[in-house]
Description:
Layout: H1 4-11, H2 15-23, E1 31-32, E2 38-39, H3 42-56, H4 61-71, H5 79-110, H6 121-127
Antiparallel strand pairs: 1-2
Amino acid sequence: MFSIGELSRQTGVKIPTIRYYEQTGLLVAPERSEGNQRRYSADGIKCLSFIRHSRELGFSIEDIRELLELSQHPEEPCEDAHVIATRHLDDVRDRIQKLGRLERELKRITSCEAGSVADCAVIETLADHEHCVTEH
């Protein structure tokens, strides 16, 4: 059995985040010692590592909740997991496209060679969205 501090050290997840995951039901609340300290099993470490890696890949809490539920049924087909991951991939691709538009717009407005703020493309564009070339 592991304390919350040891769980944090082994997984790299901060203690307040572990508590948050417990409060939201993402991480099953552990047993408590006679002194009311949380005591985690090896399964707790595995689950928290799964959550951490999923968060690093950008999955939402709700997606992680669904994936954790699926992981509890290893005999089931993995189609639902693929649906969740594919949906997330589509979202990531959409964000990449949006970031590309933002990059082009910022590159355009920072290339101005105005001598004063009165003629500055950055200030002018930020003050009026109509000056933007891309939709972002």
